[in-house]
Each structure stands twice: as structure tokens, then as C-alpha cells.
Amino acid sequence: MADRSTQLHLFIKELESAFPEIKEIFRLSPERLANLIHKKEPAGKLSLCWPGKAGLTSIISSPPNSQWVFRPELSINPIDTKNILVEGENLEVLKLLRKDYSASVKTIYIDPPYNTGKKHFIFKDHFANQTIRECSNKEIPTIRNPAPADQHSLWLSMMYPRLAVAKELLRDDGIIFISIDENELANLKLIMDEIFGEKNFVEIFSWAKSETPANLSKKSKKVVEYVVCYQKQSSTIKFTGV
């Protein structure tokens, strides 16, 4: 007697003969059928998936669409200074920095949008060829009131390429700190594990933002926010207080 896999395979073939369009609808290859029958787990490592993630690889690897514009009239001691202040859309700036400062930054601290839903979320990653100054003056369309699930996807799609490029800027002993609250803390931890590696997680620091939080209509009063910390490569270096 044919086993269950063979019986199902023959049944699918009969359906395809009677209804040719069914193959396009279900796209059941023999391999996929076998995986479903034997309940095989998909290959690959644990990761967080969301709508739009598949297209982020090309965004990360693509060159910047902008160029540096030196503003001497806004500079103080520009010849001797060791400091640089850059104005522009942050992903474009990160890509420009990647060209000249790859693997040379010791510390990165970012304070991204917390995605609390209190403000309209602003996100656009496709700029035409123009200078950073023009990018900074360009009006960015606002995506208003997306559904809750889409709001998380937008935030993740905004953060992921920026964190990936930021990692490229870090030295081997470099470290990154990211401020966040409870709205995206779990998602941030998962994508940082994916980008930096779980072994390079250092700590989630808690800091008291208020001793007397506002009496909002919530089940509990929020008194802390968080700073997520990762190193580029594992090391035995320990943090010390000042």
C-alpha cells in the first residue's frame, strides 16, 4: 500500500489534471508537500519577520543618493577642529559616513522615535539625487494613522537598515547604545540579536525618567525607560562607573 505521502501526491496530480489553475493557486511542489507531511522546520536561524523586510537588503547595500556639502559660514575653526556636525536624513548620512569612516567609530548613541503612537510616524527612505542640505529641507510625506500592525512594521523597516549600517561604522571594539521604551523594546532586542549577534548583547540599562509619573489612564504608571547596549565583537572589557 502506498504511504500517505504518495497518496496525497497522486491526489494533487488528479486535482491539477481536472483544474490546471490549482497548481498556480497552491504551488505545491513535491518537496513542499513532503515538508508539510513530515512537518519539517524551515532552514535558517531564528529571526523576526514583518511585511517589507525582504526589500531592506538592497536598501542597506545601495550607495547614498547624496553628497557632502561643506558649509564654511556655519563652521568654527574648520581647519583644526576634530569634530564634525552633519545635517541630513540619517540613513543617507550613515551611508556617506560608511564610505570614509567604516570600522573606525568607537561609540554610537542613538535616540530613535519610540513609536508610541502619540505622533504621526514619519518615514521615507527613497530620496532623489540631491545634496544632504537639500534632503534636510525637503518636505517628507507623513504616513498618518496606520493600523497597529503596520505601525510596528514601519518602525522596524525604518530601524533595521540604519542599525545595519551603524554596525559597519563601528570598530571591532566598538559599542552602540539605543534609547527606547516598552513599545518597541522587545522588537528592538530581536533585530539587534539578528544584526549584531545575540552573543554581543551587553545589557538593557533601565533609567528612571520620572519619580512622579503623570496620572494617565493606564493600568500602571511608567517610571522607567531603557538603553539597549551591544558590542560589535565579544570582549572581556568591563564597564566602570565614573
- Percent strand equals 15-25%
- Distance N terminus to C terminus? 76 Å
- The shape, in one word, is extended
> Which residues form runs of ≥5 with pLDDT under 50?
126-146
- Strand segment tally: 6
Task: Report the average pLDDT across residues.
Answer: 78
* Biggest sheet layout: 4 strands, mixed
Which features would summarize this protein structure in a list?
242 residues, two-stranded antiparallel sheet, 4-stranded mixed β-sheet, extended, 6 strands, 8 helices, alpha+beta
Give structural notes:
The structure is a single chain. The protein is an alpha+beta fold. 36% of the residues lie in helices and 15% in strands. The protein has helices spanning 4-18, 21-26, 30-38, 56-61, 90-101, 132-137, 148-169, 185-196, and strands at 105-110, 121-122, 142-143, 170-180, 201-208, 224-231. The strands form two sheets. A four-stranded mixed sheet has the order 1-4-6-5. The radius of gyration is 24 Å and the shape is extended. Residues 126-146 have low confidence and may be disordered.
Any chance you could write out the topology, listing elements then pairs?
Elements lengths: L3 H15 L2 H6 L3 H9 L17 H6 L28 H12 L3 E6 L10 E2 L9 H6 L4 E2 L4 H22 E11 L4 H12 L4 E8 L15 E8 L11
Parallel strand pairs: 1-4
Antiparallel strand pairs: 2-3, 4-6, 5-6
Task: Provide a concise account of the structure shown.
The chain has 242 residues and is an alpha+beta fold.
